[in-house]
Amino acid sequence: MIEEADISNEKVLEAYRNLVMERMLDKKMLNASRQGFLPFYIPLMGHEAIHIGIGLALRNIDYFYPYYRDFGALVQLGIPMDMIMSQVFSNASDNELGRDMPDHVSFKKYNIGAVITPVAGHLMSAAGIAYAKKYRKSDGAVLTTFGDGATSTPDFHVAMNFAGVYDLPMVFLCENNGFAISVPTYPNEEGQSDAYEETRGPIYKKAEAYGFEGIRIDGTSFLEVYKQTRKALENASNGPVLIEAMTYRMGPHSTADDPNKYRKDEVPEGSDKDPLIVNQKILKDMGILTEKKIQDINNEIDDLTSKLVDKYEKAPKPDKKTILDNLYETDPWYITEERGDIE
């Protein structure tokens, strides 16, 4: 539990409200995908507390390199909802001009690096920014996130090694949800499994191979994620840290995945391990939340998210003329020629 003086009750309540917003938006955007308004979607259920904790922890001097399941962190950071929702629905006001998959944002204005699909491919870019910060002696650190499956990629090990060798101001945060798509992260309690495992040892201990600290935290409590991530960012001038935040992916990996084919639902919505329920209990114990307040927030957010999804489902798509925009500073002759064919 964080110290009361560390963060105000009002800010904690706002964070909980954003956690509820992520949950409700997630369910409604998943439905929008099934109805054909989104060609593809990456569900978030189970990750909400990690996202809100990250958003609370980041400072305006830090850089953030997220992966494709960090929607809620953007909400908590205060990124305008129009920018977020326009990107998800690939609308005319999308910063990416409708060219990328949902949740693949890039907000340079807010020190947020581009989300890319190849697993762990953004970690080396994050390490490069951290190296630049150290070289320029600038304040702040770089936080980058990824799933447990990313820790088995070459990019993860290259970035970790580079950060360790150069003692970079960097925080690696693994959102361990128990599955790399359909592959379990660890063997079961008996050390055996009917399926292949992602890794034999705890992910946080992988930091030892590269000469820096690794820790494991409860990823279902946004206050715990906030506390440990902020501490790591503040101490990053002393070198990198790997955080393994433990949670459970309550839905499919994506809309192209059917989790019923490889697992039983171990954490159903509303259970004691559901991050929403976990944080309700914590905030009730702190005297910040009551059953009436929970219901009031649910009613408010349900109405708000329904209106948001309805608005962006109906918003116009980018004009076909924009398909060749932002490719070159000055169009070469063949782009000019192609523009004529489009028009």
Describe the fold and architecture.
Residues 255-273 have a biased composition (Basic and acidic residues). The chain is an alpha/beta fold and 343 residues long. The chain contains ten helices and seven strands. Strands 1-2-3-7-6 form a five-stranded parallel β-sheet, with helices on both faces. Helix 1 crosses helix 2 and helix 1 (9-34) runs antiparallel to helix 8 (275-285). It starts with 8 loop residues before the first helix and ends with a helix.
Question: For this structure, what is the CATH class?
Answer: Alpha Beta
Radius of gyration, Cα only, in angstroms?
Answer: 21 Å
Helix tally? 10
Record field, number of beta strands: 7
Keywords, separated by commas or semicolons:
Rossmann fold, 39% helix, 5-stranded parallel β-sheet, disordered N terminus, 343 residues, single chain, alpha/beta, two-stranded antiparallel sheet
Q: TL;DR?
A:
With about 350 residues, the protein is of the alpha/beta class. The chain has one domain: 3-Layer(aba) Sandwich (Rossmann fold), CATH 3.40.50.970. It contains 10 helices and 7 strands.
Topology:
Elements: H1 9-34, H2 48-57, E1 63-65, H3 71-77, H4 81-88, H5 123-136, E2 142-147, H6 154-165, E3 170-176, E4 179-180, E5 183-184, E6 213-218, H7 222-234, E7 241-246, H8 275-285, H9 291-314, H10 333-342
Parallel strand pairs: 1-2, 2-3, 3-7, 6-7
Antiparallel strand pairs: 4-5
Helix pairs in contact: 1-2, 1-3, 1-8, 1-9, 2-3, 2-7, 5-6
